[in-house]
Write a structure and sequence with these properties.
The complex is a heterodimer of chains A (302) and B (331). With 302 residues, chain A is mainly alpha-helical. Chain A has helices spanning 2-10, 31-46, 54-81, 90-96, 98-118, 122-126, 132-164, 169-200, 204-231, 237-241, 246-257, 272-300. Chain A has one domain (29-300). Chain A has 12 helices and no strands. The longest helix of chain B has 16 residues, at 175-190. The chains are: A mainly alpha (302), B alpha/beta (331). Chain A: The chain crosses the membrane at residues 58-81, 87-106, 140-165, 177-198, 205-229, 275-294.
Chain lengths: 302, 331
Amino acid sequence: MAVEHSAAATSADQTRIHDIGYRAYDGPRLGRSYATRALYSQSLRGAYGLGRSAKSKVLPMLLFVVMCVPAAIMVAVAVATKAHDLPVAYTRYAIIMQSVICLYVASQAPQSVSRDLRFKTVPLYFSRPIETADYVRAKFAALASALFVLTAAPLLVLYVGALLAKLDFADQTEGCAQGLLSVALLSLLFAGIGLVIASVTPRRGFGIAAVIAVLIISYGAVSTLQAIADSQDNPGAIPWIGLFSPVTLIDGVQSAFLGAEPSHPGGHGPDTAQGIVYLAVVLGLIAAAYGLLLRRYKKVGL
Amino acid sequence: MVCVTIVDDVTVIATESLSKRFPRVTALDRLSVDIGPGVTGLVGANGAGKSTLIKILLGLSPASEGRAEVLGLDVAARGTAIRERVGYMPEHDCLPPDVSATEFVVHMARMSGLPPTAARERTADTLRHVGLYEERYRPIGGYSTGMKQRVKLAQALVHDPQLVFLDEPTNGLDPVGRDEMLGLIRRIHRDFGISVLVTSHLLGELERTCDHVVVIDGGKLLRSSSTTDFTQTTTTLAIEVTDSDEHPDGTLAVREALGALGVGVQDGSGLPGAGHTLLLTASGEETYDLVRDTVAGLGLGLVRMEQRRHHISEVFTSSDEPRKEATGHGG
């Protein structure tokens, strides 16, 4: 630096290029936790196409807008009609918009991990200070955060709108908090499932299809079975069937603990004991996803 | 400012009866070797254990037995500390096509622990040093193989390591690209003060670049010596000349003229351009002059005169070991 300074001072009126040769780096090396955080923020930004090509911004941004517009319309209606409550409860919103959330997971989970596998960039990470667990944690946290942004933003729109419409403050705050808790759980669960599926395949298209199959088709299958159980007067089976799809799992947990209306046919929500099973399954799945990712990357190595 | 902190007699890499056994293969078999600063070539056929050794030295794969130290740090206990000071360039493709070289190398610099500003400065410097200029802002997908190799090298150097592992850096390059890459490897040590461990299955290209060559085969140390030892025993020149009206078969004329001067000449059958290529053993600098003068004296044009690239198998035959069957293609 000193060289450049003196050169600039002595020849302010001349432009010169100095070949300063190779400069060694003796600044700080911030190590593992810094690198993990940098990977987290890069992956989180990447989940919305930031720092990537214009083309890759289109889908995540579009889905984000699609998530928020219905909330804005509901708010507008509530304000205009001076309604006493929002047309949709906070906890219902994510369930109604589930296909948008699933599409987002299906498009961004492969983007986050399949690329590194497909282009064999993973060895470059592991030849640096960060370890397998750091990589997995950063990627998991990044996708879960991205999903939380996607699902929490419309709830905040609803909340702000509800306050503008002068709805009951305590009521709305409680509802919104329950909604946020529910989508936080949903974000972790969906991120885990999406990443495990995506990390198995280096092919992005295949990853997208597999995530959609697991998230959306399982929901279709489960609701069909539940409808059959309902029509055959077997309501006791409905909550148990709900354990087999991610969407109904979250729905079950929030109807048992977060005051949500169950979306199960006939309004058969799980009771508290079943709710505990639901919660245990959700937490177990999140932990299993983390464990599977760790195992997967132990094998990838160099 | 450029300070080579490593004193000459310090060992950069040391292994002590290092073994790595997989259920069905022994990749490394009681390998003991000391490697000093400078450019060291690690030569072996495919499957000789080169990549396994690098993995162990990076602290990513535990050894089955024995121990190893890199920069004085034990690989089993201090893997993270080693990886902070060491760079690694893999053999295979490892670059995402949809980002630019600058973005990619900045990201990799941060993964090595460099703060954001330093990461950007070092990236600009390093890409310039490896010879990437305007194209560094374009997506990597459009790069030639040579440019991609430079990006791979840049990501290994961006955090200014004390030592870099380069795994087959000349793979897939044309002869010009190879020479440029080898020149760059020389500079890494000479100008940047970074020690280099470079692997290859071609001894010929390493003997011109390295100070020291380690040859392994089947996970065992075959030979470890300075490159001058190798060159003395293995210099073969390949020459190719034009024909003229006076000498319709220039190759034959040169062969006879050199034969008369007592230089042993074989025809290069089996080589590309057979029939036009002559091989001769160079006894020293004077052989080059002799060839030049002879060809000029006959009024012919000298198309090509180069040191032949030796295949690794020639080391094995010249080291008088009856292991020819193992050298040709080691799985």
